Amino acid sequence: MKICILPDKIAMGRQAAQDGAAMIRAALAERCAANIIVATGASQFEMLAALVKQPDLDWSRVTGFHLDEYLGLPMTHPASFRRYLKERFVDQVPLGTFHYVSGERDAQAECDRLGRIIREAPVDVAFVGIGENGHLAFNDPPADFETEEPYLVVDLDDACRRQQLGEGWFPSLDDVPRQAISMSIRQIMKSRSIVCSVPDERKAEAVRNTVEGPVTPQTPASILQQHAQATMYLDPAAASLLKERV
Q1: What is the separation of C-alpha 38 from the centre of its chain, rounded to a whole number of angstroms?
Q2: What is the CATH topology of the domain spanning 2-234?
Q3: Which residues are 35's β-sheet partners?
Q4: pLDDT in tens, 180-229
Q5: Do 187 and 120 contact (CB within 8 A), yes or no?
Q6: Dist CA 62 CA 26 (whole Å)
Q7: Taking the domains of the chain in order of start, what are their residue ranges?
Q8: Where are the alpha helices (DSSP H) in the chain?
Q9: Cβ atoms of residues 3 and 39 within 8 Å
Q10: How many CB atoms are located within 10 Å of the residue 226 CB?
């Protein structure tokens, strides 16, 4: 895993988007199509804002996959990740296809449906972030590093739910769902390249544990250490606890 520290969140998002767009263009040049994974949350604001403005990118040949979604949350809810992606990404570019995760259907059937699709679509670029508890997608600690299922139903731990409240997505902790559908760790790791954007001081401990700690299910994002083409993009606040700031 490479580490890239930028002067601020805007520069971080711009660099992550530029590098990710170059990877998409390379996939398009290689086989005339590209598959990407797109994450949500406050950490992705700057990256997505820059990604949709990238020049010379034929989005019509790009297929997108949604990373995770709460169970039972309608798309009209302000915290819906489907709503987030529709407004900030899907409606902004002439995308070929986008496969949303719906938390309003039978959860296992939805996992099976998406699993069948993504097994036939090798992912070129995964745009992801990490949580304050070190989660990757909604794989909270201790994460399942073994399952080969592409999508699974997960329980959200208290730290994860408090983060969603703290970021302003919900009015109270009781309103934050307790379960979600998430792409699995192994499925994310199958991506050819991973672009991980992580701003803000509140993520600094998770960044340190991810980059400098052991690879462990207790810090799910630490698995990125084992990916040859993963890059973590940080602002100075998120990188503030790293021993070696390169």
Answers
A1: 6
A2: Rossmann fold (3.40.50)
A3: 63
A4: 999 999 999 999 999 999 999 999 999 999 999 999 999 999 999 999 99
A5: no
A6: 12
A7: 2-234
A8: 9-31, 45-51, 81-88, 107-119, 158-166, 185-189, 204-212
A9: no
A10: 10
Mean pLDDT in residue range 116-129 = 97
194 membership: H or E segment, kind and range: strand 193-198
CB of 207 closer than 8 Å to CB of 134: no
185 has which bridge partners? none
- Residue 232 DSSP label: E
Q: 220 by DSSP, 3-state: which? A: helix
Neighbour tally for 34: CB within 10 Å: 27
Residue type, 171: P
Nearest to residue 217, comparing CAs of 138, 151, 139? 139
Angle 92-201-77 (CA atoms, 0-180°, nearest 5)?
A: 40
What Rg, from alpha-carbon coordinates, does the chain have? 17
- For position 194, what pLDDT does the model report? 98
Task: Using DSSP bridges, classify how beta strands 179-183 and 68-70 pair: parallel, antiparallel or unpaired.
Answer: antiparallel
Instruction: Answer yes or no: are the C-beta atoms of 227 and 165 closer than 8 Å.
Output: no
